Amino acid sequence: MAKITLDNLAHSYLPNPQGEDDYALKELNHDWADGQAYALLGSSGCGKSTLLNIISGLLHPSQGRILFDDKDVTHAPTAERNIAQVFQFPVVYDTMTVHDNLAFPLRNRGRDESYVAERVQEIARMIGMEDMLKRKARGLGADAKQKISLGRGMVRKDVNALLFDEPLTVIDPHMKWELRTQLKKLHHDFGHTMIYVTHDQTEALTFADKVVVMYDGRVVQIGTPDELFERPAHTFVGYFIGSPGMNLLAAKVEGDRAYVDGKEIPLGGSYDTPRGKVEIGVRPEFVHLTAGEGLPVRIRRVEDVGRHKIVRADFFGTEINIIADEGDAIGADMTRVRFDPGHVNVYADDWRVAPRTRQEEAA
């Protein structure tokens, strides 16, 4: 296991990058704690796999260093970093049995055969392949082969880190849930440092202790699922996390009030007057339809998704989403909307603005 430090790290696929826009991975300075489970989350092309490949040694960064437990491994080959990596598509030895595929990393390091047999049996049980250990990998489907890849990545207990690059792409939905659960159990039992790349927020939020959200080659927030939901540090986080994502409204903010199209919205804190592109963000869970108090809204449609209803509405020319409980009646007289002040975030040029502290207000 290892603490992973990204020191002034950046990467461009161009031979002579001229500016920030030429970098697929913009400058990063982060410490990732030993034994934590992290998910790298973001849309395609945001730099997730680039960063993972730099950590694993498959890619050399254009600038900066990467350290494992404060030891510089920037120029160390993959084999010397003592990591296990599982890729998006299965990598298995077709001519070997499932047992021998799982045993390969242990035998390659000279482990005793009795330990190999015990550990292979344990991992096979974990991935649901106990009855397939004697089968050759050649005749198996893509999902079974990916389970072998996952098992081979997990079979060693002594690795510095386990790296997963969208490993469940070819796995059926039911098995995805099972394998995520097993990965969480593995982390709980053995405390490996784990980094899991995905564009699926459900995978990220259910797997990780901390989620690293990336956007346009940059880490925009590292936080717990609760922190990402309650206090998105960037408008992309608000949009990307949640279903539907955060409502964003162009606004003017003064003190403890925001103004949308000249109409006043109470805030849960007091702010200076933010400059630039100012917006307020509020999640659909904290928007409420009413028949009396609030600001006018026009309902476009209601979608019943089982556990709740999603109300699509027009609010001063901007479409907003409202989540209502399944049992809530939505009558024709519900033409007003109000926001929970304590759950309204303020953004300037896409970055969250913190409310003033009590000391600042008293000064």
UniProtKB/TrEMBL annotation:
Start and end residues of each ABC transporter domain: 4-241
Lipoprotein keyword on record: no
Lineage: superkingdom: Bacteria
Gene Ontology CC: ATP-binding cassette (ABC) transporter complex, substrate-binding subunit-containing
GO molecular function per UniProt: ABC-type ferric iron transporter activity; ATP binding; ATP hydrolysis activity
Keywords: ATP-binding, Cell membrane, Membrane, Nucleotide-binding, Transport
Gene3D superfamilies reported for this sequence: 2.40.50.100, Nucleic acid-binding proteins, P-loop containing nucleotide triphosphate hydrolases
CDD domains: ABC_Carb_Solutes_like
Pfam family of the protein (one): OB_MalK
ATP-binding listed as a keyword: yes
Family designation: Belongs to the ABC transporter superfamily.
PANTHER family in alphabetical order: ABC TRANSPORTER ATP-BINDING PROTEIN (PTHR43875:SF14), MALTODEXTRIN IMPORT ATP-BINDING PROTEIN MSMX (PTHR43875)
The protein's name in its UniProt record: Carbohydrate ABC transporter ATP-binding protein, CUT1 family
Species of provenance: Citreimonas salinaria
